[in-house]
Write a structure and sequence with these properties.
The structure is a homodimer of 168-residue chains.
Chain A: E1 3-7, H1 13-28, E2 33-36, H2 41-54, E3 59-62, H3 66-72, E4 76-86, H4 87-96, E5 101-105, H5 112-117, E6 120-123, H6 131-142
Parallel strand pairs in A: 1-2, 1-5, 2-3, 4-5, 4-6
Chain lengths: 168, 168
C-alpha cells in the first residue's frame, strides 16, 4: 500500500511554512509521496537535505492540474476535513483495504468537488484546528503508531534520552 | 488534572503562524491553557473568536519570565523533543499520575535547562518534524482519542457527513 499526500492551496505565502510542516510530517509519519499544486524549490531542497541526513524517503511531485490528478488516482481518495466522518469510525474500513491511498489536505477553502470525488471525507475531530495535526493523527491511526518506531536508516540517528541529546 | 501548554520561541515572525496552529490544536485537543513567552494580541483575538463561535475553552496567558514559570509549576513538566524518550514507552506512567501537566513545546533551539528542569523529555518519534504534530499526537495519547469526541457546546456545531458540510 502506497500512501500519497496531496497538499492543496500552497499558493499563499502564509501557507508556505504550513506546507513545510506538512512535508516533514508526511516523511516522519511514513507517507511515500507528497504532491504539491504549485512548485516550491526551497521546500523541495530542504526536504531533500533532511532525507540525506536523516534517511527515510518522500518523493515530492508537482501537479498543477490537481483535479485531473485526483480523478486519475488509482486507489482510495481520503479528504481530511472537519466536516467529514469521525476518523475512529472509518479507520478500520480504511485500514482493511490494501489499495493505495491519496490523502488530500487542503487549506481554508477546498473546492466542493473534492468532497464529491473522494471516497472518504474524514474528520480528525469536528473542530477547527490544523491540517498539520490532522495529517499526523490520521497517519498515526493508519499505521497504528508503528510509524514512530520505524528505522529511517539515516546518517544521523538519535538515541532516545531521559535528558539531553545523544546521537548514534 | 489540568493540562497547560507552554509555547517557547514565539518571537519570530515565521513562528507566528505556527503558534496559531499550536493554539488551535491545544483547544481542539482539549488542553486547558496556553502560555506564550511574548504577547500576541492578534493570536489572542483569533482564539477568543473561535471559542465564541465553536465553544470549548483555552485560557491564553503571557509569561515573559518563562524560566520562573516552569520552575514554579506545580505538577509535571513534559518537554516535547525529538531527542527524548518514546511517547509510547512513557505515556502509561504519565497518564497514571493525576498531577497537572505542563507540556513544553519549543521552536528550533530550546535552552538546555528546559531538558533538565522537565520531569519528562518525550519524543513523538525521533525524527525532525513539527511541534504542531507532536503536540496533537501527544494530547491524543494522553486523552486516548476521547478528545476528538468531546462536546464543545459551541454556537456552531458540525454534524459529520460522508460528503459535504452540515451544521446542527
Amino acid at each position: 500500500m502506497k500512501v500519497s499526500v496531496l497538499r492543496l492551496g500552497h499558493r499563499f505565502i502564509r501557507d508556505k511554512r504550513t506546507t513545510t510542516h506538512i512535508a516533514l510530517v508526511a516523511r516522519a509519519f511514513c507517507a511515500d509521496e507528497l504532491i504539491l499544486d504549485s512548485e516550491d524549490r526551497d521546500l523541495e531542497k530542504s526536504i531533500v537535505r533532511i532525507i540525506e541526513e536523516w534517511g527515510g524517503k518522500l518523493n515530492i511531485k508537482v501537479e498543477k492540474n490537481w483535479r485531473k490528478f485526483i480523478e486519475n488516482f488509482n486507489g482510495e481518495r481520503i479528504h481530511l476535513t472537519m466536516y467529514g466522518m469521525p476518523v475512529d469510525e472509518k479507520i478500520p474500513e480504511i485500514k482493511k483495504s490494501k489499495k493505495d491511498k491519496l490523502i488530500i489536505v487542503g487549506g481554508q477553502k477546498v473546492p466542493s468537488e473534492v468532497y464529491h470525488i473522494s471516497e472518504y471525507n474524514i474528520a480528525v475531530g469536528n473542530q477547527p484546528h490544523s491540517e498539520i495535526a490532522a495529517l499526523a493523527v490520521f497517519l498515526d491511526r493508519l499505521f497504528e503508531g508503528d510509524e514512530l518506531n520505524r528505522n529511517f536508516k539515516g546518517k544521523k540517528r538519535i538515541i532516545p534520552q531521559e535528558c539531553g541529546k545523544k546521537f548514534a
